[in-house]
Structures are given as structure tokens and as C-alpha cells.
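Q: What does the assembly look like in three dimensions?
Context provided by user:
Components: two
Sequences:
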Amino acid sequence: MVRAVAVSARVSAVLALLFFPAILSAQDWVKTGTSLGVEKVRLAVPEFKPSTADPQNAALLKTFNDTLWNDLDVSGVVELVSKSFYPLQTPGQPPEVNFLAWNAPPPNAAMLAFGNLGVTNGRLTVQGWLYDVKNIQSPQILGKQYGDAASDAAARMMAHKFADEIIFRLGGGIQGIAESQIYFVSDRTGHKEIWAMDYDGSNQHQITHLNSIALSPRISPDGSRIAFSALTKTGWEIMMYSLDLNRAVGFPHMGGTNLSPAWSGDGLKLAFSSSRGGEPEIYVADASGANLHRMTTAKGPDVSPVWNRKTNAQIAFVSGRTGLPQIYTMEADGTNQQRMTDQGYAVSPNWSPNGQFLTLAWVRKYGPGEPGSSDLYLMDIASKQWVQLTHDGGRNDFPSWSPDGRHVVFQSNRSGSLEIWSMLADGSKVQQLTFTGRNTQPNWSWK
Amino acid sequence: MKKQSKWILLVVALCAAMTLSACKKKVAPPPPPPPPAPPAPTASISVNPTSIQAGQSAALTWQTTNATDVSIDGIGAVQPNGSQSVSPTDSTTYHLTAKGAGGSQETTARLTVTQAPPPPPPPTPSVTDEDLFNQNIKDVYFDYDKSDIRADQQASVQADVQFLGQHSNISITIEGHCDERGSTEYNLALGDQRASAVKNVLTAAGVSAGRIKTISYGKEKPFCTESNEACWQQNRRGHLVYQK
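A: Here is the predicted structure of the complete assembly.
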């Protein structure tokens, strides 16, 4: 345990320095220590106020306020001041801000996000400000106005945009993720199809209608195409769906069993597993399917490749060449294959946006009499040191990094059914995103 | 006493003599009438309907009177009155002979048989190739996370080789299946290896590779959904499927 803590401390220090520049983790097993001298900004977010008398305001305000609060809460960048500490009078406009009511205890806020929302003749307008309430002379950090035809989706999108502006400024200049998408597999229609949703679980909608089995959706870096694997008349093939055209587009059938596509960070290449030559091996092709090259030759299944999306120079993958599946890395030309995990059953590697970490699903102690829970781990690639991210039992699998590198989305049966959850990359702020049917294999968009 | 008996005998004799002499000239009485001549038998026979298709049947009905010996050609002795179902394959004349003390009587009924349309083709033979396949082919089971053929599965493999050798017209699909443990993508790759392992052992034994398709289902289509070893073993298999 001492070793694990030490490992945790080291990885977490790296994590905090490179990765969570403004985060102090609250969890003991990710022991970052207070010596780093960083604290999350205390941000107060009173509910936005109606600016007109339109009857649509109430419902849109609820959507906007809930979405904004959740975006900021799960961002990992700020500490939201509990609403129970707020003064009775909250501002909807800059002149209404009472600085002393916010910057002193009980709220003791450093920042205040406030604004108003109103519908006029069917058009929704939102005004939002971010104030540094400790700086009374020059408090405004951000002032934004958004307008669109009034709808629930528009109110949600405006909240996402405003949240991302705040997170960008308070989170060390890293773009927020409130407008990102998560692609996943759901069987709620009776067949496993590819679905999409907003990063917070709203707006879930079906993408494919194959009435077969579609698995392993992987969104392209530019967000225009989804590569996935589907059971076709000729077996498991890689398929390509265009989100611009809203239909499947051509991709050559490879023969054999073709699984688990993965985009290179530049969007030019795809790696995937194919048994076209006999055994399931890792292949790399152009995004068009041309120029196919085999990268592995080992006995045992090789599957689930993922690129180092920062360098495009390495690929991590799963191999059963020594028995139970383990995580390996190799250069993108297939050389220098290295085993990363030392024991158990390790699958589903996913490379962090900064190129330094893998998340993976790992049953470290595997075999008869073992509990067999599959947890998510974070591994520092250079040192192979790891920390455990989930501790709640059940089977957790298919972690996928958010574009800001602060979050991980994954599948878990901890609720009794296979659903999609998200959390901060230190294991905190765990949130269930899906509730209907069995939902698996989430894949977070690249931006 | 003796004198009285002599006297009685004398009187009786005298009376008798007188009686006999008095009847001398009378005609002899007629003989008793002969018994009446026996009546002639009657007979009728009919068939209903009078025309059938081959394979159908008709009711043959007959009545006789005053007959002691009734027979129908082709059927034999029958009761004086009766009915019988007949289903000849060709047109037939039923010839009834009723014999009695008063003679004999004959009568006929004709049943016309038309040939049925050709019988429908016999139903699909009760045992098809697919039935034979399902009776004889054995699935091949695997150890956890393994795709090599277990020693205890050799008998199943041999049975499959023998059957496929005897039925060279049959093509098959080998499905590779895995238990619910483990991850979706790895299990699909593992299932692919299991299907290939069964294919390889069949082709090595002489089954043409062109007759064998393989597909992996990973853990997507389990045979059994409980979370215990008995169920998991059911799901770790190469499943041989008849290919229509």
C-alpha cells in the first residue's frame, strides 16, 4: 500500500502539474498534497433572471441555469459556492452586483457569474457576465450576449457556450468541453446501434439504423465521420458514417473479422484489428481504407488499437500473445512492441490528449475466487506507474478521454445495468449519463 | 272263463268279417298332399356412390330373401343382408349369387373407378440433411480465454470430420462464441480465433476449406445468460451451423 500511495503521489503530481494546473484533488488515494499551492477558484453562480415577461422564460431559465451549473460543477476547474450561502438579492445586471455580499463570508466567492435571459417575439437573448468580486474597481472578466430562436436546445447551447468561456478563463486557457459530443453504442431499439449525445447526457439520438450489431464507434478528429465495426453479410467490417451527409459512406471490406477502428490524431490514418490474414492482428490503413499494412504478427488476438493522438507516432493496443490480454505499445510502424501491464486482464487502452497517459480497464487480480471487478486505471506511459480511478466495484470498461484531458467517460454496470458514466480524470465527480437500455463503448469527440 | 273268451273272439271276428265285406267296393283314399314347392330366392345389390376415384371408397349394400348361400365374387361368402365398404383400384362389377332351396338368383352392381390425379409429391423426406447435421454434428468447447482444441473435444471433432466427410455436399458456418466475462472487443477477436481453430482442425482432417465459413460473435449472442461456470462453458464454443 505504501508503494501504491507513493506511485499515486508521483503520478498525481505529474497529473496535477501537467494536466490539472489548477486542481487540488480531494481524494486521499490521489495524494497531491497542499504544497502545490493551488486551489480551485470559488465561483458563485446565482440563477439567471428573466429580462422580459414572456411566458416561455420560466422553462428556458430552468434549462439554462441547470445546464450552466452542471457544466461548471463537473468541469473540475472551479469550486462552486453552495447556493445556501448566497445573499437574498442576486444580480441580473451589472449595476445590481453587491460586491460585499459576495466577496466576504459566508459565500466568500472570488468569482461571480450572473446574468439574465428573456424571450422577445420568439427570440431568446441571454446576457452573462463573469466578475472578479474581489476586484471592485475593475471586476469584469467576461461579458457575453447570445441570441437565437427560442428553444430548449438554444438555451442549453447558450449555457454550454457561456460555461466554456468561464472555464477557458479560469482553467488555464484550456478549451472547455461543454459543446463536445459523446458517441456510444445503445441497444435501446433492440439492436446495438451507434448513438450520440451531448457530453452531459442530454440530446441523445440514434445515428445508425443497421438492425444488425454496430460496435466501437470512433469519431474522427474533425468530428465529421464515425468509424465503427458492424456485423455485415460478409462478417465484421469497418464501416464509416458521415455526419455531414447523415449516411454511411464507402469503406472497403477487408474480409475476416475487422474490429475496433482508431483514428490517428491528424485524421489521416485508421488502425484496426483484422483477421483477414488468419489471426486478429493490428493493421494501419489510410482513412480511405487504402494502403493497408499489417503491424503485428504475434500469435494470439491483437485488438483495440489507439494512437498517441499528440505525436501520431505510437499505437497502444491489446494483445493475448502471452495468455490473458495485456496492454502493449509500439511505434506506428509496428516496431518496438512493449508490454505495459504486468498481470491480470487489461483491455481498452485510451491515450490522453497530452500524450502522456493511458487509461485502461484492468482486472488486476484475475482468476478463480477473485472478485473479478474491472476498474479503470491511469498509467503514466514513460514510467508504467499507475493509479486506480474507480473503486466502486462492478465492471468498468472503455474509458475515453475528454478533449480537455480533464474527464473520462466510460461504461459501468455499477447501477445494475450497463450505462455510460463520466468522471474527472482523478476519479471524482462521477455522473451517470444514460438511463435507457444498455449503453456501452463511449467515445468522446476530439473538440 | 274259457268259454266266454271264445265267444268274444267269435263276435269280433264276425264283425270284422262283415265290416271288411261291406267296404270292398270303395275307392282308395287320396294320398296326403305333397309339401308346397320352396319359393325362389330374391337378391339385390347396390353400390353408393357408383363412381369413385381410385383410393376412395364406396358402400356396397345387398339384400336377399330365401337364400341360404350368398356370395359376392371377389369377396366371398357373405351374410344374407349386409353392407361393406369397398375401395377397388379399378372399376369393378360386384356379382352377387344368392342360392336357396328355391333356386338361385344373381345380380350385379358396377362401381366405376376413375384414376386419381397423380398423388402429390411425397412430403419432404422426414430426415433432411439439416436434421442429420443437427443429430450428428457436435460443437467444440473451449477453456477460458483459450482457442486451442481441448483433448476432451477430439471426439467431437472426429464426429464432425466423419459426418462432413460422408456429406460432402454440406457447407457450414463455424461461429466463435465467448462467455460474458471480459471485454467486447477482445472477446470478438478471441471468438474469431476459436472459429478459426475449429476450421483449421477440420481442414487438416480433409474437409475442404471452401465449405467452411467462420464468424465471431464474441459475447454478442450467448447461448446462456447466467453468471456461473456451467453457463460460461456453454458460451465458450465453436458452434457449427448448417449452411442452407
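Follow-up: The two ends of chain A are 38 Å apart (CA to CA).
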